[in-house]
Amino acid sequence: MSGRPKAELVLSESEREQLKALTMRRKTAQALALRARIVLACADGMDNRIVATRQRVSQQTVCKWRARFVADRLDGLLDAPRPECSVTRASTQ
């Protein structure tokens, strides 16, 4: 194993089942399904480089979702809330 050390990614049986379900459901957003496939592959012990190649994403993408899953578990795979626009328009009434 080369590169920076990675946080160990261990799934509970429940998490593994939920991630597999996300990858198989037709109504799951494709971005979320991809994130689930990345996490499952990392949990199976694959190197980030191999996961990136197989999923056709960058290594940075694999690192990002691996780290977010380790930190926040399943909730980490959801899109982060986007900041609200702070510009207000003057009322023309």
Helix and strand sequence: HHHH
From the N-terminal CA to the C-terminal CA, the straight-line distance is 65 Å
Oligomeric category: single chain
Q: Report the total helices.
A: 4
Bin the strand percentage: under 5%
Shape: globular
Largest sheet: none
Structure summary, number of beta strands: 0
Level of helix content? 40-55%
Give the radius of gyration. Answer: 17 Å
Q: Explain this structure to me?
A:
With 93 residues, the protein is mainly α. The chain has a domain at 13-77. It is 52% helix and 0% strand. The protein contains 4 helices and no strands. The protein has helices at residues 13-24, 30-43, 48-55, 59-72. The termini are far apart.
In short:
This protein is mainly α and 93 residues long. The chain is built from four helices and no strands.
Which descriptors apply to this entry?
93 residues, 4 helices, 52% helix, 0% strand
SSE blueprint:
Blueprint: H1 13-24, H2 30-43, H3 48-55, H4 59-72
